[in-house]
Amino acid sequence: MATLYITEQGAIVRRVDERIIVEHEKEVLADIPLIKVDQVVLFGRVGLTTPVIETLLEQGVEVCFLNQWGRFLGRLQPAQGKNCLVRADQFRASFDADRATYLARQFVKGKLKNMLNLLMRARREGVNLPEEPFLEINQAIKALPRAENVDGVRGLEGAGSAAYFRVFGKLLKKDFQFHGRVRRPPTDPVNSLLSFAYTLLAKDTASAVNTVGLDPYTGFLHKDRYGRVSLALDIAEEFRPIVADAVVLSVINRGMIGRDDFEQELGGAVKLKDDARKRFLAAYEKKKQSEIRHPYFKYRATYRRCMELQARLLAKYLQGEIDKYLPLVTR
């Protein structure tokens, strides 16, 4: 099972028997058995026929809509899980300051430990890194149990992330420069790739959360805000270094994406060109489908499957079936 990305502007997605057909000006761009697709992602001006929408919803296949440049717009998702009890437990926990703080600590601990492990791996591979970011991230991790509320957890997350991104540019082997995280809008190629990767990751964790039956909009670390998939962003924190950041480093350091693959919009935002976006999506999908040994379940699973497993662990914690939530940390 995989994600079908459609970037061709003006393309039409149809259903023929049990297959998904993507056409553009009467040319067939893709012909894929429905059984092999678990998510469809549309970029910009791409059309869906009514029969294919009906079929995708019946088969439990989510459709995500992004603009041509990769900004998330919304999703068409199958009926929400019938387990209203888990959502009730989720809502209760979100109003319980102690439980919300505990979960925020766990999400951030997973993120910071994975950031630390990524930097340690780079050092073992010969990258010359100063000692300060290691010390600062470790200090933030050690201070997490003492954070008295979610705002305190957010402060430690910010401090650890700032230390990490101060040296992130040293991990780049090509002629790319990175002087710090810039979000809205990203004004350089590396930040553009990071923002795009984080958008794709949030899309996938939102799908995992919905599959389990949780409400993606009610989170613990991220503040609830109209239209924000706060819980999906909470779970995404653990996967940012090991999936999103790893893909960005890979496509740059392996020469899959070059400086000529970007263009600048009015307002200063830097975006990937169409062909480069397709290469990046392929690299992201390959990473998402790669397998690791899950540290708690002790069997091999894809990163995509691990996102769902983390959502299931969270649901079990919220329902009192387990007494703690363990973030996914890889070596």
Oligomeric grouping of the chains: single chain
CATH superfamily of the largest domain: CRISPR-associated endonuclease Cas1, C-terminal domain
Overall radius of gyration: 20 Å
Mean model confidence by pLDDT: 88
Strand arrangement within the widest β-sheet reads: 1-5-7-8
Task: Give the CATH class of the largest domain.
Answer: Mainly Alpha
Which percent range fits the helix content? 40-55%
Describe the 3D structure.
The chain is of the alpha/beta class. It has two domains: 2-76, Ribosomal Protein L15, Chain: K, domain 2, CATH 3.100.10; 84-318, Four Helix Bundle (Hemerythrin (Met), subunit A). It is built from nine helices and twelve strands. Strand 3 (19-24) and strand 4 form a beta hairpin. Helix 3 (97-124) packs parallel to helix 5 (150-168) and helix 3 (97-124) packs parallel to helix 7 (230-253). The chain is globular. The relative contact order is 0.12. The model has no long low-confidence stretch (mean pLDDT 88).
Give structural attributes.
single chain; 331 residues; alpha/beta; Ribosomal Protein L15, Chain: K, domain 2; Four Helix Bundle (Hemerythrin (Met), subunit A); 2 domains; 4-stranded mixed sheet; 12 strands; globular
Task: Offer a quick outline of the entry.
This protein is of the alpha/beta class. The protein has helices spanning 50-58, 84-94, 97-124, 132-143, 150-168, 189-212, 230-253, 274-289, 303-318, and strands at 2-6, 12-16, 19-24, 27-33, 37-43, 47-48, 62-66, 72-76, 262-264, 270-272, 291-293, 300-302.
